[in-house]
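STRUCTURE:
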């Protein structure tokens, strides 16, 4: 099976350009797309929670995934590496139209995969080093490091008013409106909810 994979980040973008490029590419090689996977989602989202994840669970030996660019698979190197590794382990190839990558179960693919993996590891280490340096610099400048002081008090406020929040939700009030009513940001409200305080 030959799958055309298309991803755009927002509703304001169209999938038509990517579909046109993949179709033209396949026509030039006398290939036909068996099925299309189109999704509108950020490439930073975990791939196993996307339509791409469902596709990866379905593909097998001899299958082929074609996309316009490697960045369509994901926006982080380590994520792309995981995707390529999954495909290679299953015997599924990944081709890109623009960069001309032909990733399969051959030595060139493995060398390229190694290069991607090394780049991803270097990127992770650089991010970690930059974070440590930034924290050390903030400490040296006498600035507070860590969670803002006000955050804990806001979380306590949400804990204390949990019953009211439940009542408002039951009445159909939106979370954004509740956050405004309580004088906290939506981010703080969602963080509180996600952290398990909201049950």
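SEQUENCE:
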């Amino acid at each position: 099976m030959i799958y055309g994979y298309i991803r755009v980040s927002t509703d304001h973008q169209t999938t038509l350009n990517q579909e046109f490029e993949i179709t033209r590419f396949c026509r030039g090689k006398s290939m036909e797309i068996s099925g299309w996977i189109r999704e509108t989602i950020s490439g930073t989202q975990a791939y196993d929670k996307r339509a791409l994840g469902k596709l990866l669970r379905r593909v097998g030996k001899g299958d082929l995934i074609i996309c316009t660019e490697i960045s369509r698979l994901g926006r982080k190197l380590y994520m792309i590496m995981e995707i390529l590794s999954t495909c290679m382990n299953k015997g599924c190839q990944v081709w890109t139209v623009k960069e001309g990558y032909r990733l399969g179960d051959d030595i060139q693919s493995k060398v390229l995969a190694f290069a991607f993996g090394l780049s991803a590891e270097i990127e992770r280490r650089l991010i970690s080093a930059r974070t440590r340096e930034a924290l050390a610099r903030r400490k040296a400048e006498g600035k507070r490091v860590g969670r803002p002081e006000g955050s804990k008090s806001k979380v306590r406020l949400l804990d204390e008013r949990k019953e009211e929040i439940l009542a408002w939700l039951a009445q159909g009030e939106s979370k954004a409106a509740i956050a405004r009513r309580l004088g906290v940001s939506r981010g703080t409200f969602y963080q509180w909810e996600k952290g398990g305080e909201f049950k």
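REMARK: Residues 149-194 form one domain.
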